[in-house]
């Protein structure tokens, strides 16, 4: 009997999102990723004596925007608190966060998993400053002899989004997180670059026997930075907990870390409760009063969300699958929408974006933003194919050249002589030559074997290096074969 036949999984998540501001939450230091260690710092974010924080208004704007996208209530009155703990990456010995009066609460997010729609509650979303980064001498903290601290990230603004424990399977957790990250990405609240730590996941999971109403004892695994890590972590942690429960042992409520290389979770410390952090109101920051006009002004800037965009694509004739793939990335979706302004066949355009365009992006290992091919150029290429100026096969050659040179498709077609051959006189001689060279295929065609026609068309395309108009070739072949 499998784990999930014996037990029901209960999971909630905490997602830390770096907000897309140019400066930190309480000072003017840069939030740019990748600077030399300990160069994006000042007395404020280092917590030196005598300094005072000043709240970055753009942080509040982005927090409200994210909250609205997640259907949260935006608080009229909010405040910051000190979350006290002692750790090398926290130079102030506390984190400036929000406790009992967060800026966003009581939201929800709908997503699809296994072909069905599901809704997960959002308990709260609150603003806070990030800690520094520990750089370990070993592969993980548990295998290191020494660690160094880079404080560049200290004070970078975060939005911590806390879900309700509404998820009951690993697939639900991953699907929820994918939709959440997409939603944040679409609002441009964060760049969501997980490889740079812009989004980090904490996973709270417990098991309980089927039919039991009370939750089991949970563990929290911190700082996962990819969907695959979340999936692997949950697979391991549920197996570990099930094994202990099967043996009649108790689960210890604790904080754990994920070892990516070994594929295991490791114990870090006993799980802290709120009182362990000795929260109290931040005395150096005034409470935050948010007028309704402020909220409504930001509401007007909300873009089309992924779910709404998927529905719009389906109304254009795209399949559920196509709409889902195109909206996985806001950059790809925006590219498609821009190209659609100049080319109206949504299905053909979607196929080229999802297959040829995506293939070349992967081959070049570049992002959509770095692509040398603009949406208008792809639309121009597809128009050339639609008008019969070039064949679809030649079109694939042209787009590869577009990625190399950045030139317009019409220029490439002219420079390389790739225009489609539709001249019947020019093709007729080749048709006769192909028929004469393949008598067996001619006999097969006359015997009713349709594949023979495909072979002969292929020989024509080979002879013209793919430039012959397939429609004209088919017509001429049939006419000449009828005479044989």
From TrEMBL:
The keyword Nucleotide-binding applies. Allows the formation of correctly charged Asn-tRNA(Asn) or Gln-tRNA(Gln) through the transamidation of misacylated Asp-tRNA(Asn) or Glu-tRNA(Gln) in organisms which lack either or both of asparaginyl-tRNA or glutaminyl-tRNA synthetases. The reaction takes place in the presence of glutamine and ATP through an activated phospho-Asp-tRNA(Asn) or phospho-Glu-tRNA(Gln). Belongs to the GatB/GatE family. GatB subfamily. PROSITE patterns: GATB (PS01234). Heterotrimer of A, B and C subunits. This is Aspartyl/glutamyl-tRNA(Asn/Gln) amidotransferase subunit B. Residues 334-481 form the Asn/Gln amidotransferase domain. One of its GO terms (molecular function) is glutaminyl-tRNA synthase (glutamine-hydrolyzing) activity. InterPro entries: Asn/Gln-tRNA_amidoTrfase_suB/E, Asn/Gln-tRNA_Trfase_suB/E_cat, Asn/Gln_amidotransferase, Asn/Gln_tRNA_amidoTrase-B-like, GatB, GatB_C_1, GatB_Yqey_C_2, Gln-tRNA_amidoTrfase_suB_CS. Keywords: ATP-binding, Ligase, Nucleotide-binding, Protein biosynthesis, Transferase. SUPFAM superfamilies: GatB/YqeY motif (SSF89095), Glutamine synthetase/guanido kinase (SSF55931). It catalyses: L-glutamyl-tRNA(Gln) + L-glutamine + ATP + H2O = L-glutaminyl-tRNA(Gln) + L-glutamate + ADP + phosphate + H(+); L-aspartyl-tRNA(Asn) + L-glutamine + ATP + H2O = L-asparaginyl-tRNA(Asn) + L-glutamate + ADP + phosphate + 2 H(+). Its EC number is 6.3.5.-. SMART domains: GatB_Yqey. PANTHER family: GLUTAMYL-TRNA GLN AMIDOTRANSFERASE SUBUNIT B MITOCHONDRIAL AND PROKARYOTIC PET112-RELATED, GLUTAMYL-TRNA(GLN) AMIDOTRANSFERASE SUBUNIT B, MITOCHONDRIAL. Signal peptide: none annotated. GO terms for biological process: glutaminyl-tRNAGln biosynthesis via transamidation; translation. It comes from the Bacteria.
């Amino acid at each position: 009997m499998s784990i999930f036949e014996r037990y029901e999984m209960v999971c909630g998540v905490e997602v830390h999102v770096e907000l897309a501001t140019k400066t930190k939450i309480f000072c003017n230091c840069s939030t740019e990723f990748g600077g030399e260690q300990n160069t994006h710092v000042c007395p404020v974010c280092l917590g030196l004596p005598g300094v005072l924080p000043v709240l970055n208004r753009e942080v509040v704007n982005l927090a409200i925007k994210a909250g609205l996208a997640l259907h949260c209530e935006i608080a009229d009155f909010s405040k910051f608190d000190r979350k006290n703990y002692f750790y090398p990456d926290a130079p102030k010995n506390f984190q400036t966060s929000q406790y009992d009066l967060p800026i966003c609460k009581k939201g929800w997010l709908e997503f699809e998993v296994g072909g069905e729609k599901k809704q997960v509650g959002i308990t709260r979303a609150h603003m806070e400053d990030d800690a520094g980064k520990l750089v370990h001498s070993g592969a993980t903290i548990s295998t290191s002899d020494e660690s160094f601290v880079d404080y560049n990230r200290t004070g970078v603004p975060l939005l911590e989004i806390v879900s309700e424990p509404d998820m009951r399977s690993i697939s639900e957790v991953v699907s929820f997180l994918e939709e959440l990250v997409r939603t944040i990405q679409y609002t441009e609240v964060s760049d969501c670059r997980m490889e740079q730590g812009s989004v980090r996941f904490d996973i709270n999971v417990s098991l309980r026997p089927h039919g039991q109403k009370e939750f089991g004892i949970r563990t929290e695994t911190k700082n996962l930075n990819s969907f695959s890590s979340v999936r692997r972590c949950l697979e391991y942690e549920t197996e570990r907990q099930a094994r202990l429960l099967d043996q009649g042992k108790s689960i210890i409520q604790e904080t754990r870390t994920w070892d990516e290389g070994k594929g295991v979770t490791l114990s870090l410390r006993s799980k802290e409760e709120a009182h362990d952090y000795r929260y109290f109101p931040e005395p150096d920051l005034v409470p935050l009063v948010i007028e309704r006009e402020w909220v409504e002004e930001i509401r007007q800037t909300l873009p089309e969300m992924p779910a709404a965009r998927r529905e719009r694509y389906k109304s254009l004739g795209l399949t559920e699958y196509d709409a889902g793939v195109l909206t996985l990335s806001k950059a790809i979706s925006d590219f498609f929408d821009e190209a659609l302004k100049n080319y109206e066949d949504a299905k053909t355009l979607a196929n080229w974006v999802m297959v040829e365009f995506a293939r070349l992006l992967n081959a070049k290992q570049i992002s959509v933003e770095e692509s040398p091919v603009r949406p208008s150029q792809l639309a121009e290429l597809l128009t050339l194919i639609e008008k019969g100026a070039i064949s679809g096969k030649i079109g694939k050659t042209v787009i590869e050249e577009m990625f190399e040179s950045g030139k317009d498709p019409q220029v490439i077609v002219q420079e390389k002589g790739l225009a489609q051959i539709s001249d019947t006189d020019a093709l007729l001689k080749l048709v006769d030559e192909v028929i004469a060279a393949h008598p067996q295929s001619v006999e097969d065609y006359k015997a009713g074997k349709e594949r023979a026609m495909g072979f002969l068309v292929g020989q024509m395309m080979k002879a013209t290096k793919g430039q012959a108009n397939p429609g004209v070739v088919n017509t001429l072949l049939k006419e000449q074969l009828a005479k044989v």
